[in-house]
Protein 1
Amino acid sequence: MNWLSKLTPPGVKNIFSKRDTPDNLWVKCPKSGEMVFHSDLIEALHVTPAGHHMRIGPDLRFSYTFDSGDFEQVAIPTVAQDPLKFKDDKKYTDRLKAARTKTGDRDAMSIGVGKVEGLDCVVLVQNFGFMGGSLGMAAGEGFITAAQTAIARKMPLIIFTAAGGARMQEGALSLMQMPRTTIAVQQLREAGLPYIVVLTDPTTGGVTASYAMLGDVHLAEPEALICFAGPRVIEQTIREKLPEGFQRSEYLKAKGMIDQVVARGELRETLGKLLSVLMRRPRDHDAVLKIA
């Protein structure tokens, strides 16, 4: 006990007891280093004042995309776990367990069905928080299930990509998801249904080499890293300094690799306009104007 405690009258310490402070009260902006109040970040759709688009999971993505945040969740089929009995410094089963505890999801893909600007669609979200959004058998089944749901219900498919590439713990079984998802995209085309890709930070590796670059329209959030191999690997390989902003959304748009860079707050309206044109159906807003 220190001398100050001895001088403090009984009961006074209880009046000024230390209050618990939430760990996430403030969030540091990775772009500017500014500390942002968490409630302000929520109101800004997790975009900092400096314009940095924070990585978000399926729950937030669905709430920002669907009208009023209302949607129907579609289950993803169960796949074999740890078919190769893989182990590095941890067992693959332990990594899966930790990722499921952290995110509350079974794997990296989540599917929702709802309305965007009054138009029905299937939305598939890839969660970077689940083992880096890596493409494994479960994620492949998630994509195929989303495509089949869209075909069965005659709806367009929108995907929000975010991945570090293929899941090494599943070896060739992971790589096989690339041609499988490509076939699913072709089936959407044969059914005459739009496939819209929204590239978010980061979208890399085998995901970029497959379904992330097969959309009818490619949108991207600002400053998202979009590539196969990252800039550091390329610099080390060619031993040259890369252009500023290399492999970011704005750079790829200037090179014609993506169609439009869209801020998160404008995505729902942009998607609604695209769906209206591609499906030849009016949005709710368009229908009101027509009636008036």
Note: The beta strands are 26-28, 35-37, 71-74, 109-116, 119-126, 157-163, 195-203, 217-220, 260-261.
Protein 2
Amino acid sequence: MDGVRKSRMRLLLQAAEAFVGAAGVADVRRRVRDLVLNDLKPVYVGLSLLEHRGNGHRPGPAARRILDPEIDVQMETRYRTYTVMDEWPTARALRERRIVTVTSREELAESYGEQALDVWDTLGFASLAAIPLEGTQGAIGALIIAWGEVHELDPDERAVLKAVAQYTALATERALRLDDRTSVAHGLQKALLTSVPDVPGLDLAALYQPAAAFDLVGGDWYDAYRLPVEAPDGPPRLAVTVGDITGHNTRAAAIMGQARSMLRQADIDHLHRGPAHAVTALERACNVLSLPATGTLVHAHLTRADEGWELRWSNAGHPPPLLAVPGRAVEVLHPHDRLLLPDLPCGQRTEHRTALPPGATLLLYTDGLVERRSRALDSSIEATGRLLQQHVAAGAPLHDVLRDLHRRIAVDPNEDDVALLAVRVRHGAAP
């Protein structure tokens, strides 16, 4: 018995630290599962949370099972939602605010519904315990722990489960606040990332993938918009940008939104000037307004020419764009100026030009695609270029190209946001 009690005391000590830094409710579920696995040896650990919104005509508050992406339990998806009045052990635990146990199939069949029996038989349960989660403002959900053989809780084990549930409830409340904040930030950022325009002679595609871990949302953005022509019969013009304002929070996203709008305004107000002039104007405005828009960007203008399009760009310390032309090696557009630093005096940005022949594909991206601690930046950019070249040679649609680049190049999408923008010159695009 001493060994069992020592094991349970160790479990409680581990519980005090197990939920530190939980990145969301799914992460809370994984952590509580890992916490109890060695000592209690269950075959299943589930988490359900009460929902704040209404549930239509169904009586009682609604609860939703939190899915664990690391396991494949189709039963959770099949019976994803229920109410506290439904015939589930977790619903009863929430109604009566106590631990509910079931130690046989006969007991389950007598007190609960066919759905509970379906889960019991499919997952091979022999016993279970449903423990309510009490938050700072009342009940917030329930834990369910199940065993593959008969398991009756003794008083010490009940006390341990109550303590684990308390830690889980507090961690869940923190995770819910984090999820809400991250959801608002992602919504803000996505609202700023407009759809790419329809430009005759060009194909455009964009992809934005926020970081999945913690509240990593920040200043990555892409932009593309048509510029007014300089004369009634002038060639079409397009402005494109990919940038990254320093930071991974809502403040960075807000600064990004302001910088993006200011850069657009600079382009519109100085139609006869190039992208370098627009970036310089952005910097001056940030200095005057004390807007801390520190970061990097590539800003470019595309103008239709006799053979394809002409690209003019200015790079403020950003990863170099890639240019893939069928039958040629991928070109890395290296020239760049210093990054955006509002505290430094503004200087005139430099501008570069190159031709985009029919079939050419231009790729702009943020460092979330290529920058990793365990991999040299140059090698990541080279790998991106090789994969881009393969897709261009195969004539793959741009949306598919961007998704595949993100999937195969971004080693850990949890670490940083990723923004991608691609422009392809159609064959026969010259006037």
Note: The chain has two domains: 2-176, 193-425.
